[in-house]
């Protein structure tokens, strides 16, 4: 009776806690960056979102999703940090940066870590997955992944550069094509926000990135 009466209010309070501090806005513009290795943590925070999906019927946390959008901006900071840690030469760093940035012109990639009430529910590659994930924006565009690659055994890079990766979570790299077959972008240049939607029998929720400029 108590849960039935106050359940919606409790879910609202959870949403407020999840929101916590307002997430920073982001820019999808390309161009030169002047990051140093110590900037990585703040850039990671800018491009990372987290949500906890709570079942109203059971009032239980059925899915926690944390995702980092590997944007042009993020990749620049990542490569600078990686090159510093691994003591790459200037030429090696330049080659790695060029290759990483070139990928952003082909696809949108997210590093995602999931924790579910039942471990199988966190497996996006299961034969009958508990959740489907889509790339969305506020103009109604919705795109299925072109690749969901499980990170079966996260190593030192994943544990270091994506510290929300834990033994109790399943990690994935999820890719979406930049362009649809008809030539339209999967994230509209006019979009005010884009995000990932997780939907299934237990409910649905979205991780979103508010765009200040494209």
pLDDT below 50 for ≥5 consecutive residues: which ranges?
A: 1-20
The total tally of domains equals 1
Radius of gyration: 18 Å
Strands ordered across the widest β-sheet: 1-10-9-5-6
**DSSP helical segment count:** 5
- Residues in helix, %: 25-40%
By secondary-structure content and strand pairing, the structural class works out as alpha+beta
Query: What is the 3D form?
Result: globular
Distance between the termini: 49 Å
Question: Would you summarize the structure shown here?
Answer:
This protein is of the alpha+beta class.
Structural features, described:
The protein has 214 residues and is α+β, with helices and mostly antiparallel strands. It contains five helices and ten strands; from the N terminus they run H-E-H-E-E-H-H-E-E-E-E-H-E-E-E. It has helices at 2-19, 40-46, 72-85, 90-103, 156-161; strands spanning 26-27, 48-55, 60-69, 107-116, 132-137, 142-143, 147-151, 170-177, 193-200, 203-213. A hairpin with a 4-residue loop joins strand 2 and strand 3 (60-69). Helix 3 (72-85) runs antiparallel to helix 4. The longest helix is centred in the first third of the chain and has 18 residues, at 2-19. It is globular, with a radius of gyration of 18 Å. The model is unreliable at 1-20 (pLDDT under 50).
């Amino acid at each position: 009776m108590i849960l039935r009466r106050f359940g919606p209010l409790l879910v609202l309070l959870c949403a407020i806690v999840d929101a916590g501090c307002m997430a920073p806005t982001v820019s999808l513009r390309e161009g030169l960056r002047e990051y140093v290795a110590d900037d990585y943590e703040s850039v990671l925070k800018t491009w990372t979102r987290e949500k906890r999906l709570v079942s109203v019927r059971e009032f239980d946390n059925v899915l926690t999703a944390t995702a980092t959008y590997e944007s042009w901006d993020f990749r620049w900071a990542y490569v600078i940090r990686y090159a510093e840690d691994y003591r790459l030469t200037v030429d090696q760093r330049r080659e790695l940066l060029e290759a990483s940035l070139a990928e952003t012109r082909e696809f949108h990639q997210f590093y995602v870590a999931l924790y579910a009430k039942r471990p199988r529910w966190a497996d996006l590659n299961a034969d009958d997955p508990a959740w489907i994930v889509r790339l969305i924006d506020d103009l109604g565009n919705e795109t299925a992944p072109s690749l969901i690659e499980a990170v079966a055994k996260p190593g030192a890079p994943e544990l270091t550069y994506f510290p929300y990766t834990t033994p109790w979570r399943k990690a994935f790299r999820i890719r979406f094509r930049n362009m649809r077959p008809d030539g339209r972008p999967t994230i509209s240049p006019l979009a005010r926000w884009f995000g990932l939607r997780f939907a299934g029998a237990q409910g649905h929720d979205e991780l979103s990135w508010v765009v200040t400029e494209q």
